[in-house]
Structures are given as structure tokens and as C-alpha cells.
Amino acid sequence: MKHLSLFACLLLCALPSLRAQPSFSGPMPSREVIADPAERRKAYHARLNEVIDWVAGDTKYRTDDPANFDIAEVIARLIRRQDVEGCSRRVIELMRQPGTGPFWMFPTVCLAYTGRDLLSPEAQASIRAAWRTSRQIRGDTENHFVMYYVSLYLMNELYPDDAGDQWYTGLSSAENRAEAKAYLTHWMDLATTVGQGEFNPTHYIGEYAIPLLFLKAWARDPEMSKRGHIMLDWLFAELAETSLQGVLRGPSARTDEGSVIERWNGMVSHFSWLLFGNTPPPAAYAIWGVYFSFAGTAYELPEVIYRIAVDRNGDYEHRDHKRTRRRWRFSDVEWAPIYKTSYMRTDYAVGSYQGGLADPIQTHVWDVTWAEPDPRGKHNTMFSLHPHASGRVMQTYFATYPEPMVNAVTFEGKPSYNSPDKVMGCSPYEQVFQSLDTVIALYDIARGERFPQINGFFSKDLKDVTEDASGWIFARGGNAYLAYRPLAPYRWIPYLHFNSGWAKQRRDLGGRLLVSEHLKNGTIVQAASVSEFASFEAFQAAMRALPLTFTLDPVPSVKLKTLRGKTVSFTYGKPPVLDGKPVNYAAWKLFESPHLNAELHSRRLVITHGSLRRTLDAAALTLTDGPAGAP
Considering the entire predicted model, what is its pTM? Predict the structure, then answer.
């Protein structure tokens, strides 16, 4: 799929098969809860069909010539039984120059399964030949491995008895299936015992959800189909729990320049739209996101997960356990634990993990994100970070030659990595603690670091920004009041934005960065709902009255009584102390909240909402529904 101009979108809307305006450019969806399961299923299927119809009418040059179709368009046309002969001819042409790697493999698997009873024998043979002659590269990230092995597994189930000389691997179908099953089982065990490494991704959720859906829909082995089903529920339960009106917020192991400031604008919102119906999808249905619709009828979201996403009643705190990306060098552990906290309210949400290195390039550590009636184009978030960039850190996480690191990555889809004014990334010199809707981030940057500064993001959508004589900076975002306290002197610069991962030029989108160029540093942010105070001035007075002491030498240290009456003592390099008790991260569970609960290493997640309960048991390979409170 490709990005579309406004003209192209308007032209698509005029096509006979696409009378309705695409949801990504249409009005906001209703956020009313759909109680009737039949109506909920009907609405979900309507969204799936909207995507399929849109893709089926989206040809590269606005013609009906199959010679211009890409794989997604061929699949959509096959589903709609449109010019099957022309689709077959196009498949033969596409397979003359096959791609390599997971992003070619999973679309081609989707094509093979969708077309197995529709494509001509010659077209099916061309797909089969491509899997014999083209070497497929596995990739080097968690999402690459999942896509690769699901694709390998399913393709080898489609041709279950072939010898090794019929596959690029040189292994037989049975051997390929065994290798793929072993890895996928290992990954699922890891994710359900200590958590994902690429946790809460803003885009890469699709690279998990789509192959897992294919596994559920098409695996002949009932065990593998069940595994796909369990992991889909697991993935979407966490999305429901940590999204605010369908918008994922809080920390993320993998994000990008766009969705870290415009929190809605990631593929993850496409899945919120498809499954929950409570936010618009991104432009062009997030490109890769369309593949979920091609097999989407094979999955039905459980009501308990739907209710968690759309039927909120009161504030809640959520804690969970994840892990860092795998470490190859300069570390005594293969991966380190991530302790993640979320606090969800109607008007805003606050989320963080404890700081330090998770994934060196695209991690987002913490934020306060407020709700918007229509989140499109809104930069509804506030956070700070140390813009760390280091060849040593990259060598820790990437098993490749060290010489091109740092500079090369900026030309490979991560243009801001080597920029002092970036707004994405984690640092070994940042430590974070969150108590409900208060965040304290402390920084003790080593001398000689390339970018000895802290960047605080102040959105173009903030109102009434006030630099108070007390040292607090007050502002309003939506129906949330925000108080930001820098612990060292600062200056303001414009926020300049890379429009995409491959962009070389930056744009001024209207936001600002608070830049504090001090090695020992810190940020405190407190959020509250507008409805809690008689006025903006009353909120400011309440914040000024809170007891606060801090020092930066010898290391940053803060003692604060929060707006919620919690006493926090937090010193860089030491465990945070909450109401006189040190925080014991070792006792952290895999999930702990009113809705999601799982013991560490248990492989068993209990999902609840009101009287609804669903238990996912990745050890026993069962999905069990029953009343809340049942054992």
C-alpha cells in the first residue's frame, strides 16, 4: 500500500464500490457502548468490509488494470471476486521478482491462502516457486521473528510434504514447521512469563496482530491455531487497558517521531478503530493494517476486552512487567526487567517505566496524555527525556559491525536518533518514578556525553502556559490541568519535526522544547482534572502549597507531597520511597490492575470487567469464560 494524496482520497470516495467516506477522513465515531453482541459483531464486520472495499478500489494509477495491482489489491479483489483472471496474471508477474524478509513473507502467505481456491494453477505455482528460489532474511527484532516464523510455518502447512530442495531453507516441510513451531512456542512462553520486549508499540502492534491472526485463521494444527487465538486476546487486552478513548498512551518500547507527539497517529489506533470502534483509523488504514481485515472474520473480540476499552467507570492504576530488548554486549543480563505503571482517568492518563535502556533508538519512557474529542492532528501529551545517542549502547543491542553505528541509523528510518533536540529515546542516565498522576524524572548525565541536556515537550495544543515565579510552569491540555517543574535553569527552542522515518528535512509544527543544559537535572509533572478545581488559579495555588524540596548535588533528589496526598522521596541511584516504604520492584506481577491480573512466570492472565471474566492460559492452551470472582 502507498500513502495517498487528498485528491486520491477524494477520487476513491467517488468510486461506485466506495460510496462512503473512508473513516480515516470521516467524522468521529460514536463512543457509545454497544451492548448487543450481534450489533457489535455487525459493526466490526462493517469496518472490516470498509477496509477491503477501499483496498479493492485503490489501484496505483486509478485504473482497473490488474497490471498495476500490488499484493494487497490482488487479495482484496480476490475476496470480492473481481477479475480473478487478471489477478492471477498479476500474481505471476509479481512473483518474477520476489522480495525478501518478513514484510514480503506475510503478505505473500495471505495471498497464497486467500487465493488457494481462486488463483489459477499457474499463479499458485509461481508463489510456490518464489519460496523455493528466493532466500528469505529473518531480520533482527522480536516482531521480525514473529512474522518470519508464522509465515514459514503456514507456508509449510500449505505444502506439508515437500522435500528440502523445494524450500529456500534446504529443509523439508516437516523440518521447517518444527523450527517455526519451536520458536513461536518459545516467544509465546517468554511473553506470557516475563512480558514482551517490544512492549506497547505504537506501530509494531500490527506486526504481531496480523501474523497471529493468520495463525489462528489458517493453522491446520489445532494447537498452533489456539496459540494464535490466546496471544491475540493477550495483546488486545493490554491495548484496551492502556488506551485512552482508543489512543495508546504511556511508555512504549517502539515508537516514532509522529506518534510520540500525536499519540493517536500510529497503527495501534487502526486496531482500536477495528476492534473497539472508539477512535478513527490513521490515514490509509495504517498501510500494513489492511492485512488484518483480509482474515479479520476469523477473530471476534471478547466482550470483556471490548468493555475494558469503551466502558470505563472510575480511575484505576495498572502495573505490569516487561523486559528490555536482548543485550548482546556490555551487560551481565540477557534482558533486564521493565516495571511499567499506568494511571487512567477520564480526562487524561499518566504512564511510565522506571527509566534506563529498553530499546536504544525508539523507546518512549513516560508521558501525561490528555483526552481530545477528536485526536487527529492534536499533540496532546507532555514529557521530558535525555536525548542520548551512543555507539556503545547501540553495540549493546545490535549484533552488527560497530563502525557505521550512530551515523548509519539516521539514514535507515530513524532520522532523529543523532539529534540533540529529539523527543524520542531512552537514556542510561534517566530514572523515573510515578505515583498515580505524579511523575518524577531524575537525570545524572555523565561528563563527556554528547548531548548534556534535558528536552521537555510542550505541545502546540497547550493553553494558558504560565511560567510562575515559584518555578512551576502551569498549563491546560483539554480538560486536564498540568504542572511542570524543571529542577534546573532552561531555555525555549522551537520543536522541529521529521515528517516520517525517512525524512531528511524538518518541519515546524508549532510546539516548543524546554531545554535544560545541566548534567544533574530533573522534571516533576503533576496532572489533575479541570473539574477538581474552581479555576485555573485555584489549581496553581494548590500546587504552590505542596511541600517540595530538592537538591541536585551530589545527585538529584526530590521530596514531594503530591496532589493526592502521597509523600514521595526519590534520589537518583536509590529505590524510590512512597509514604515511608521503599518501592519493591521485585514484587511486581506480570499484570496487576482492576481488569488484568497475572502472576510473574504464570502464563495465565485473568481478564475481568464487572460481571465478565475470561482466563487465558498459555500453559494449558485454554480460553475460559465465566463470572467474575470465579477461581
Answer: 0.95
